[in-house]
Amino acid sequence: MDKAKSLGIELLFLPSYSPNLNIIERLWKWTKKDCLNCKCYGKVAEFTEAINGSLMKTKKTWTKGEKPIQIWVGDYC
Questions:
Q1: Count of alpha carbons within 13 angstroms of residue 48, beta-carbon side
Q2: Distance from C-alpha of 74 to C-alpha of 77, rounded to nearest angstrom
Q3: In this structure, are residues 58 and 71 in contact, taking their beta carbons and an 8 Å threshold?
Q4: What is the number of helices (H) and of strands (E) in the chain?
Q5: What single Pfam family name could you report for this chain, choosing any that match (predicted)?
Q6: Please, are residues 42 and 51 in contact by the beta-carbon 8 Å criterion?
């Protein structure tokens, strides 16, 4: 913390469990829904391909400044 302070960085801590504040949790929620919703994969390679395909559909919009970072995934825009 001292190093961050000396560099002029303000650390903001999230509550111990805050999935709505943690952007990666939203991404994984949408990815799981896209890849696992009523689907069964016979091989690990098929599952891996589905995950990679879902992540490739991800559109990222990073908004800096006063607005929060927003991520839209695939058809969930």
A1: 3
A2: 7
A3: yes
A4: 3, 2
A5: DDE_3
A6: no
Give me the sign of the Cα torsion angle 31, 33, 35, 41: positive
Q: How far apart are CA 3 and CA 1, in angstroms?
A: 5
Q: Encode pLDDT of 14-56 as tens digits.
A: 777 777 777 788 778 888 888 888 889 999 999 999 988 887 7
In whole angstroms, give the CA distance from residue 4 to residue 62: 23
The token duo for 77 is: 């825009």
Q: Are 26 and 2 in contact (CB under 8 A)?
A: no
Using alpha carbons, list the distances in angstroms from residue 62 to 20, 27, 49, 70.
Answer: 17, 14, 26, 6
